[in-house]
Amino acid sequence: MKRNVAIIGGGQTHHAARRHDVNQVEMVNEAIRAALLDARITIDEIDAVLLGNMEFFEGTHMTDCWLVDGTGVYGKPGLKITTGGTVGATIVCAGAHHVASGLFDKVLCIGFEKQEEGDTGAILSGVAHPLYGRSMAGAAVGYFAMMGTSYMATWGAKEEHSAMVAVKARQNARKNEYAHLKLDITIQDALNARMLAYPIRMLDMCPASNGACAMILADEKTARDRCTKPVWIRAMDSAHNEQFELDWRDVTTTRPIFSKVSAARLYRKLGVKNPVEYFDVFEIYEPATWAELVWYEDLSICGPGEGFKLIEDGMTEIDGPIPVNPSGGVLSTNCIGASAMLRVWEAALQIRGDAGEHQVPKEVNRALTTAYGGTNWAVLIALSGSSDE
Amino acid sequence: MTRELFEQELISMPMIVDVPYRFAAGKYMSRFLIGLKDNGKFLGIRCPSCNRVQMPPRIVCAACHVKNTEWVELGQEGTLAGFTIMYLPLTDPTTGKLHKPPFTYGSVRLDGCDSVIDHLVNIEPDVNKIWIGMRMKAVLRSKEQRTGDLSDILYFEPVEGQEKPGRQL
Amino acid sequence: MSEEKEYGPFEVDQHITAHSRYYAGKIGSLFYTTLRDHKKFLGIKCGTCDKVLWPPRGTCGRCFSQLSEADMVEIGPNGILETFTLITYHEPVHPRKAPFIYGIIKLDGADTGMAHFIDEVTFEQLETGMRLQPVFEEERKANILDIKYFRPL
Description:
Chain A is α/β, with parallel strands linked by helices. Chain A contains 15 helices and 11 strands.
């Protein structure tokens, strides 16, 4: 990178099923004020504001324009970015590019979704090709369900393994004051939950949350002068996929899977030989339990087909050797526009040692975050407490 | 003055955004949809570089950046690559038609094709009676009723006389 | 060798219908319930900028001060016509059938304007700077159309 970029502060709202007490602007503003306070910076010092959510989800467009009052971008340069589920991470990448370029020193990145206000089913159907697939759209749960049946058939995993992921996520969320679904559930609760689309049950799927996340990215001089615990963005990678190619649900496919492609490139950039040794914590984007198992494999945390054994052995628990999603993940909080950014922010909190009750009980120097979006493309960001390691 | 404890009434405004669209299918997609409508056939293309056969057809292979010119007529049979049993009602956003649950929905890879097609599967929604690797055949609407859309395929159906293998694939 | 057929353009008509619901928040709700129940208008004062903003909002966009219900002040009900126009074409999304007049009215005490219909007057009779008053619906529902239109004082 041309210049080093650090996260010097951030904030998030208390994510919830309902936020009737604030409108979209006011909700976004909560996260921004928290971030400015955390970074000990004022809005006047911010050089640019990048904002994103799911395109048109809430039935309002051009959110970069009309949320101006609350985002502090009045009179300043700013952009809106919408890239589907990955948007939170894409905004962080874009913010990092802005700072790394040398053209901006302090950039405010915001991801949000006031999900209850939108007709997510109808708008999400707009992702599908109008002439080939839109009539089947609205079966978003179905896509992950098919991943589940394929995974079980191929590798011999059982529904219990999905329940284990569901339990880990919500029990971790109970330690995260900002998480939406803090549930004291057991494996049996997960297996008894209402079936949505075989094998996905209610507790195997992410919720719809209202919330926002904001982070401030800065150049090295600002970070060293003003921040006691800057978190450095060491590498980013992302890989798009073609439309129609939904083969990722067939877990035996030999076609390039973009999460794998992106991870391989990122590891090369950083010289990672063994991600389990290199990274101390992972915050991955799992809209459904089966997706988490597949992420373990795509990130080479384990070999193909071994993901379910990893969860069975408790390796990815918050106090395990390979903690994954100590924050509770997307399964516990899903305000889609913010979800991918929350992965980065939560990983940053771990590196800073500021995650409170859900801080992993070991030294954290480096973290890997992932984001996932429609048409199955991925954005990966590697963070470190050090600017050169 | 008495102080009244009240919960503030929080106002919301419902809105309906209803947008009509007219999509042009483009050259290759038109040929595919017309092939389906007029002849009940599935047409794919083969990439000259990586040999992938893809349906629906597209002009350029995304991986190779090479123009696809070889059209491949695919059969009506294939293999079930993934499935689920939906317990949630699914409304087709293009017609407003509701599919009542439970129903089976799957991903079929037609013989000779590298990509899959997602569609309804006409089978009893019993997880013990469906397996990955099952042989499927497409059932189309009658010619008079076809409009040149994926819904011209009514559903996929298992080929007769199959038995669930002892060990799942 | 199959013969190349000229395929005509193939087009498909579709709809996307999305139902959403916008929450006004505490401040917005107070504005609307006051309008519905008392036929009064509330703006919000930013102490730093010394300006009264309509619509009322949680943050002053200019100075980024945080505002709350305690900062809300009564404005109007009358105001000054800042600008106006006559709509003479029809679009399905329009709330009224053309021709209709709408304009920006700066309510007394506010520093920013409100867009609304103007009626009981012809386009030729209107002039910027004219004083207007609101006409309310009998049955009000806590939305901006609780005001039927503005008319000259």
